[in-house]
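Board notes (copied after class):
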Amino acid sequence: MQMTNVDLSPKEALEEFFGFTKFKGEQEKIVQSVLDRKDTFVIMPTGGGKSLCYQLPALMCEGTAIVVSPLIALMKNQVDLLRGFGGENGVAHFLNSSLTRNEAAQVKEDIRAGITKLLYVAPESLTKKENVEFLSDIKISFFAIDEAHCISEWGHDFRPEYRRLRTIFNEIKRVPMIALTATATEKVQEDILKNLDIPGANVFKASFNRPNLFYEVRPKKDVAREIIRFVKQHAGRSGIIYCLSRKKVEEIAETLTVNGIKALPYHAGMDAAQRASHQDRFLMEDVDVIVATIAFGMGIDKPDVRFVIHHDIPKSLESYYQETGRAGRDGGEGKCVTFYSYKDIEKLEKFLQGKPVAEQEIGKQLLADTVSYAETSMCRRKYLLHYFGENLPGDNCGACDNCTNPKEYFEAKNDLALVLAAVKESKERHRAKFICDLLTGTETSEIKNYKGDKLKAYGSGGERDGQHWMAVIRQANVGGFLHKDIESYGNLSLTEEGKKFLKKPVSITFAKEREYITDDSGDDDITVNGKGGGAADEKLMAMLRDLRHTVAKKNKLAPYVIFQDPSLEEMTVRYPVTLDELTQITGVGAGKAQKFGKPFVDLIAEYVEENEIERVDDSVVVRSVAKKSSNKVHIIQNIDKRLALESIAKSKGLSMDALLEEMETIVSSGTRLDINYYLEDKLDDDAQEEIMDYFRDAESDDLEEALKEFDGSYSEEELRLVRLKFMSEVAN
């Protein structure tokens, strides 16, 4: 298929280029907005088809569309997908630090020749003078900013370099712009429009509801056992498990492997080649499960992820929504299971220490919303959608644990009135925690400072605990009786509905807080809302999947780049035996049919003949990981040989961070390590002595406290090294 600037309607172009006969949601209006050269802002949930909103107009317009994307992995993934739809390989390129000089020159040659319709760049690449000069000389159709929430400090993945995009675009040339994000509260939306200077943009906001996802929160007990049991119940299906730390990622991946599950780790401590290899093996379906930190998955377009598990709760509901959104992107079922313990929140709060006050306040507010989601007994989908400014009608979505496990309700007329009265009496300038302390009569420094103990509301709800009042506040907020002001980090005020209720209270029921119940029946294999999908001919489906895997390996592409599951499923219904018939299958354009189709139609033709099919034109015992001692011996021996720590780490495939953890374990177990030879090159004697003095006098060897004390004078690594010396020489 030739990618040309033919005079097609968006619908004709959609079928010509991508093989689809109809748009999803507001895709057609968004594409038309870009074709009309209007600035466009798209808020669309993961799996809603954001990338098509700029890919299709780019293929239709004259010139090259410049797509700003935050991750190299994301760019490679998108470029492979576009090339998979047919046409010349040069139709899409990325320009970033991973390219050799010759590869970068080839990219620029294809752009000048008018072959390239989409160029993916990282924001850092845009700042390079040579790239600005090159882009200033070419015909640009429009700029697209993917993951636009990175612009906002209130977004879950703030990147300072995104703040400079408008300035750089102005330097290159003023052309229309499309900004896209999958998660944006109203505050983040305002930030994006303001920072990109597109106040008059056409705004398209799709529903955040993903009806095919099932949301569940479980208490954090026997997590490894629970995860293994869950994954085995979903054997052969793709899933992602998110963990807070690199160490936990490695641990869980290894535990899954020894229990017979094909799993690999993925985190920023691994080198780029290893990360890319693990990601590709997941995309190519050589492994079923990736265990990762949040470094994995941003924009990775694997449509058939069937479950996302959070070993640790994320730091914001935006992160949670984006990460769970990687499940069920093809419209099939997606299970989202989160293990929750308040200890995780305390760990995340610790990470905020030492950051600027405003950043700490934002972080605390985002964490408070996450706690509310995890602990609530109301419909999780309703709570989540309310967070993004959307109202879900009714109180039971039928697809979250709180709705499928019957809850107990209580008459909340008096409790709601007490909460609203407390908010009003305290002059509508406090957060939920203050109101809970006020009602329970708890003496805190904030209550004393604001003379809360002198108010009529003080202790008026003393017969209930703080958790109960927090539940009432949450449901009052979602029910529209209270407003939570983001600008003031969560201060509560009465809405008109709240004032009306306070004047004349009426009967109202709220959900009672309860312990989370883990279903031990083992029957997890449900299809949510009838969206499970499935092949009409399972035997043929298995054969087609095997063939897809073979073709994918041969082409060094992920299987879904060849054909996605819904396309294969449709083949098992319609049995296409010619390339022309194959183009009638959803998701198979002429280019894709030409490029990959022949072995598939040959297989189907043979299968139809052999089976005399009449075609008609037009449904746990957990093995633990043994603690290894080989690293310990290797580290001790090589430190005795006075080898550089970097060399020791490299020889064992460890990051410096992981090596220091191992060394800390060795020293804390009583073995002495003499690292003076290494420290001599790192720090002078005075600096070492200063840090040693600190650890001598400090109440604990806590690293956070040491970092605070020295206020940037020494790096974390330097402090850890001297602490190791101190523990070796003084403690051992």
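Comment from the instructor: Confidence is low (pLDDT under 50) at residues 1-5, 515-533. The first strand starts at residue 40 and ends at 43.
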